[in-house]
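Lecture 7 notes: from sequence to structure.

We start with a single chain of 168 residues. Read the sequence below before looking at the structure.
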Amino acid sequence: MLIVIGGLPATGKTTLSRLLAARLGAVHLRIDTIEQAIVRSGLARHPIGPAGYVVGYALAEEHLRQGLSVVAESVNPLAVTRDAWRDVGVKAGVPVAEVEVVCSDQDEHRARIGEREVDIPGLRLPGWQEVVDREYEPWNREHIVIDTAGDDPDESLGALVQALRMEA
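Now the structure, written as tokens:
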């Protein structure tokens, strides 16, 4: 199965993706990790455009064809990136679940932006205004929405696991 997790920075995507991948024994593909590796290679500087996503799509398809489930995590802000992830699952012949992680409490979301620590060397985290101003298209099809506001990570994971069971 391909589980595509998207949402604005500091909503809890990475935490939730890591927990879900561990629970399922799945591969966790994080676009931030891929993009920062490309930057460290000297081949590009931020913003690098579609390169990180294209690498992510290829890795996801390869892992899926090997029979592994994949949790693909990125901001996934555009319909075109969401469609491309869905196409990966179709090409690999596996079900695709699309998940949007949100934090509906603006004060909590803003606090998370300020409290985050960099876990990828060299990655610059966006500030609140950058997150607010970021291009982020509304989702145009049915998908799972997980609101992490007020929940601890295990509660959010439980809600996501339950929603995935209902989709299966």
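The helical segments are 13-24, 31-40, 51-65, 79-92, 106-115, 128-133, 153-167. Keep this in mind for problem set 3.
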